[in-house]
Amino acid sequence: MTFQWIGQAVPRRDALGKTTGELKFMSDLSFPDMLWGGILRSQHPHAEIKHINCTAALAIPGVVTVLTHKDVPGLNGYGIAVQDQPVLCGDKVRYMGDAVAVVAAETKEIVEQALGAIEVDYEPLPLVTDPIEAAANRPAFVHTEGNVFRHTHVENGDVDAAFAEAAVVIENTYVTSRQMHGFLETEGGVANIDEEGNITVWCGSHYPHRDQLQIARSLAYPMEKIRVVSTAVGGGFGGKDEITIQIHLALLALKTGRPVKIHLSREESIVAGWKRHPMIIKLKTAAAKDGTLLANEVTIYSDTGAYASLGGSVLNVAIENSSGAYRVPNVRKNGYCVYTNNGVAGAMRGFGDNQVTFAMESQMDLIARELGMEPLEIRLKNGLRRGDQAALGHTMTQSVGTIKTLQAAGETFAWQEREQWKKDVSKPWIRRGVGIATALKGVGLGRGLPDMGRAVITLDQEGCFTVAVGCPDVGQGNTIAFTQIAAEVLCCDIAQVRTITGDTLLTPDSGTSTASRSIYAAGNAIIVAANLMLDALKNEAGQRSGLDTNKCTHEHEEDFEHAHQEEHEHQKEHKHHEEHENKHEMICQNGTVYSKKNPERAFTYRELAPALIEKQANCITGTFTMPIADKGIEGAPGLPHLVYSAITNVAMVEVNTMTGETQVVKVVSIPDAGRIINRQGLEGQSEGGVLMGMGYALSEDVVMKEGKVLTTNLSTYIMHTSLDAPETETLPVEELEESGPFGAKGIGEAISIAVTPAITNAIMDATGIAMISLPITPEKLLEALEKTIK
Amino acid sequence: MDVITPTSVTEALQLLKEIVQKGTQTKINSQSKEESPSCVVAGATDFLVKLKEKKINPSKVLNISRLDELKFVRDEGERLVLGPLITHQEITESTLIRQYAPILVEACSQVGSVQIRNRGTLGGNLATASPAGDSIPALYVLGATLTLKSIKSVNSAFAHTASIERQIPIREFFLGPGKTVLQPGELITSINIPKMGPEEVGFYLKLGQRKAQAISVVGVAVKATIKAATKSTMNSTINSTIHGKYIERISIACGSIAPTVIQLTQTEKKLTGARLNPEELWKLVAGAGEETSPIYDIRASQEYRKKMVGALLYQGLYDLCKCGA
C-alpha angle A770/A358/A723, rounded to 5°? Predict the structure, then answer.
């Protein structure tokens, strides 16, 4: 099948503005008469609040308002899963980023002054910093209900019997770091309230429609009077999935009646913002002599910090992926998501998968080494294929690209010529290594969680289309992909389609721009709407040609809420319609409709548009409900996923054995995201994913001591620069997924997951050392090297 | 905060004198807010960060960045004379400096990022007096001297432009982190660098946590004179040509491992006369870190920094061996 727009490197429409800096992010917006807002953060990682005195702050000229917990009109709590995080703390604080008061003042400087003038009396409480201790509610309770927010237990097969007969059992405890999203645009935005009491919050987010709900709940304000605008976002990576400052902004606008802006400094963002869950992962993995995996026993302690947010779901995704992309017939998995006073952890690209894939892929290389197998061989032997039973006991019913990506990796120069390349070192202190790793990542929220995509397509007088989708463009470029999907189905020029995203007033709720889901979910919804739009256009053209297409199209429209419960059912149905319509033979091409009988009389969309507008048939909604696995995993809400994207990475590294430094020379990314919608976009994801995965492997860690952040800015929280970046090659394979739009799955997360263990396995290949704690800093690696030498 | 921008050195010195007479001038590195009534800024790459972090709160700022007469490179025969307002980027692009002081070019090219190198000046790097300043070890081994100028406090009957100059060897300039011998009222007006001779080679190696935007964990500068050995000193059993050379003279300076950049005099002694043989060199430099007294911070431990002194030194010297210097 050939496409006009799908798969093309259609340039993003925001590219120029982002390059020149002219594009306005939400935090760039300013309004006349605007106030500045600020948030008073906790002075202690764990303490009772005895007293808050705002008198002195309020007395400062230029201070307009100072608000505390008493001023929160509605529910003083937020959280995607449970609302355990106070908008403003009243009785106790649980981490250094906890908000105690908010201030609005005429200038930024006065805000600073006012924040400094608020007096808060604290009574420090014992610190909960060790997740394993915390799980036993020692030394204190972070929340009165206990420190274990979720315990997930899954068993399949007979683990103990499998261990007894195994040829090799590898047991290790892996420790992962507290990676941060490191978005360029820190949390920021503006809120305003108009004369009619409508509140608008402009603030970068992964899901403005949910922000709208959370704001309404805390303000006890009608949802329809709250508008949240999110696009354009200056990077998210999951860090703007949960509420950041939206409620504070809305609250200040409501109380002052004026526009208010808050923009966190990098330092405040690091202390207060969400992070990747640090995990302690105990793996005991068994294999037979021929490398067949027999069993995996997994224990995970996931440090969610002071509040739950998505910690429970992150834990379950970790449980799901903790046996890698492999068939493992016998598993026992226990996961604990625990509260501590170590900041807050939430959604981050990969969502629990990165941590366990690092651990399991290290295990795979250790097993291979023990058995004298090649790392690729053992992966091919155990890799999941369609129809296989996955480790949790569910069946992989959809397309699985694991084997294809592994095979493609095996054919790369990086892998084939690795022995020669490793020998070719110029300095005696350099050791080269090549590593491989593979991963799967579920697309969408998983079983048991409502998950829908929606799109509205409007045809205007000019014969052009506006596609409205709720999922914001967090920077990944889904907007242009949505546009391509629409133009492809609508059979028109890409210039005839514009797409708006991320605005609760202008776009329908299409769910989050997270979980690698926006192309899959919203893309499918766009296809539904676009096909209906085509029907309307064909119908109109048919009528003008004197053909009767009326009947079947109408039937279709009335039926559409049901018809789109399952996209693929719809597609079947649609084909059926086409067959049915064949006698009329209306064809859409290049923005025109004509009948095969009379191709000379082609109606342009522009010609047809006024009639459709007249009939109020020019605005069409498409809805797509995410398909789910037929059976759930007991005790693990959200599991399993139905559709998985696959990724294999090959990494080439040089280790300096004198300094412990690791230079990543090259990374090959072999993603299976199903059909590629925008090749350039995929490569962008790949290059960014490699850098993020490399940072996770080698340097990125928000170091905390006694609940306080030591790496307070980007000078000590080490993200790599373009000079550190390896050469990145992206060689996608396309294992088409029939339920996806044009066969597409998702890529945003998978692309960053396997690169970390590919690098750590390359380090193992170079040095013989399995580094079981991230990040592998030069100092840590040198210490390990010195131990092995001695 | 008043920002005063003079247009000539004379005016700048005059203003400085007035400021000093009115109150005590304190340099920007002063830790206490109250103690920083005024300061001199050039590229402001450190100043603005400290201001933002509220580590300083000066009432007066003398902005000397417009003093074009302090932006120059002059070839004065035996030496190069650099104006203190020359930026790191200008240093890396100067043919004269590339030819006669390549170690300084290597050091300056590793400072921060292009943006910082475009703003940050050599004089600023010296006056800021960070033990991690990249240009400083290079200037140590190059044997640079600094010209400091001020206006004499003369009585009003005499010409008010009477200025005094003093020459300070770079090794005597620094007193501690952020502390120099620069007196209130004094400006650095030139950096004087003896040209490297044809037999002199050198390097600056920096260990940072990443390849750009990194503060040195350790920085090592070396300048050495390499001579071909006479037959009598040559060991006939070693057949490689690279072993036929030895270090006649060597100067080593190291950053980020003590309160100021320091010279590794013990290691210099050990290496003087040493043959350019990697195995032998390793024995001589492995313990070089013992001469240093680094701190522990979030970037690295003391032990690691000490080890890295020897490691960097060895890697640089190894390359000199292999280059057949």
Answer: 85
Residue in B207, B210, B214 closest to A659 by CB: B207
Q: Which of A699, A711, A778 sits opposite B298 (nearest CB)?
A: A711
pLDDT of residue A596: 87
- Tokens 């492809």 belong to which residue? A488
Phi, then psi, of A589 in degrees rounded to 5: -160, 135
Are residues B209 and A718, on separate chains, in Cβ contact within 8 Å? yes
Q: What is the mean pLDDT of chain A?
A: 95
Closest CA to B9 of B191, B186, B193: B186
Per-residue pLDDT tens over the stretch A560-583: 444 344 445 445 445 555 545 555
Q: Chain A window 703-742: which residues touch B at a Cβ cutoff of 8 Å?
A: 703, 710-711, 714-716, 718-724
Q: What are φ and ψ of residue A520, in 5° steps?
A: -65, -55
Nearest CB to B304 within list A711, A719, A779: A779
Bridge partners (DSSP) listed for residue A383: A326
pLDDT of residue B154: 56
Angle between helices A755-767 and A679-698 (to 10 degrees): 50
DSSP letter assigned to residue A449? S
Nearest CA in chain A to B279: A428
CB contact under 8 A, B210 and A427: no
Q: Strand, helix or coil at A38? A: strand
3-state secondary structure of A747: coil
The residues, any chain, with a CB within 8 Å of residue A419's CB and separated by 6 or more, are: none
User: Do strands A662-672 and A727-730 pair parallel, antiparallel, or not at all (unpaired)?
Assistant: parallel
Q: Closest partner residue to B300 among A721, A724, A779, by Cβ?
A: A779
Residues of B in contact with A655 (CB under 8 A): none
Å from B169 to nearest chain A CA?
32
CB atoms within 10 A of CB A773: 15
CA distance A129 to A151: 19
Q: Is the peptide bond before A139 cis (omega within 30 degrees of 0)?
A: yes
- Between B110 and B58, where is the model more confident? B110
Give the Cα separation of B322 and B324 in Å (integer).
5
pLDDT, average across residues B58-64: 92
If you measure CA to CA, which chain B residue comes closest to A657? B311
pLDDT in tens, B213-265: 999 999 999 999 999 876 554 454 444 444 478 999 999 999 999 999 999 99
Q: What is the DSSP letter of A90?
A: S
Contacts of B315 in chain A (CB under 8 A): 427, 429, 658
Contact in structure between A411 and A418 (CB atoms under 8 Å): no
Q: For residues A154 and A120, what is the distance between their CA atoms, to the nearest angstrom?
A: 45
Q: Crossing angle, helix A375-382 and helix A353-371, to 10 degrees?
A: 110
d(CA A172, CA A772): 8
CA A513/CA B223 separation, integer angstroms: 56
Contact A721 B212 (CB under 8 A): yes
Contact criterion met (CB < 8 Å) for B212 and A710: no
The predicted-structure confidence for A405-445, as pLDDT tens digits, reads as follows 999 999 999 999 999 999 999 899 999 999 999 999 999 99
The conformation of residue A206, written as its DSSP 8-state character, comes to S
B65-79 pLDDT, tens digit per residue, is 999 999 999 999 999
Min mean pLDDT across A318-327, A387-396, A433-442, B25-34 is at B25-34
Beta carbons of A87 and A68 less than 8 angstroms apart: no
Which DSSP helix (H) or strand (E) runs through A686? helix A679-698
pLDDT bucket at A551, cuts 50 / 70 / 90: very low
Asked if A782's CB is within 8 angstroms of B304's CB, the reply is yes
Q: Mutate one of B211, B285, B305, B323 to test the A interface: name it (highest A CB count within 10 A).
A: B211
